[in-house]
Amino acid sequence: MQFAQAKARSVRFLVVSAAVFLLVAGSMMILPGSANAAVPFRATTDLNVRACPSTNCAVIGVLRRGSCHAAQAWVKDRTWLRINFRGRRGFVSGRYARRGC
């Protein structure tokens, strides 16, 4: 009898653990803009890095054509990518970025 109860508790623990894992993993997929979900991309041309997501903002650097980087999030209706550029926040146009490296 004790063996059956211990086995039932083990099965319950495994089911609950699997459910929690799936919930956490699923929430990471649903929130692609979260800090934990950096997405690699390749610059398709020499790409200006700007201080804010607008062509009116100052250029703070350039990503060279073909170089690979990690996007932290999509911003401004998914038209700009937020990146970490030399230790500061930067933005590049999503029009000139191809997903993957």
TrEMBL record:
The answer, when asked if Signal is one of the entry's keywords, is: yes
Q: Which domain of life is it from?
A: Bacteria
Keyword list (alphabetical) reads: Signal
Query: Where does the SH3b domain lie?
Result: 46-96
Give the signal peptide, or none.
1-37
- The keyword Lipoprotein belongs to this UniProt entry's keyword annotation: no
**The protein's name in its UniProt record:** SH3 domain containing protein
Organism for this UniProt entry: Thiorhodovibrio winogradskyi
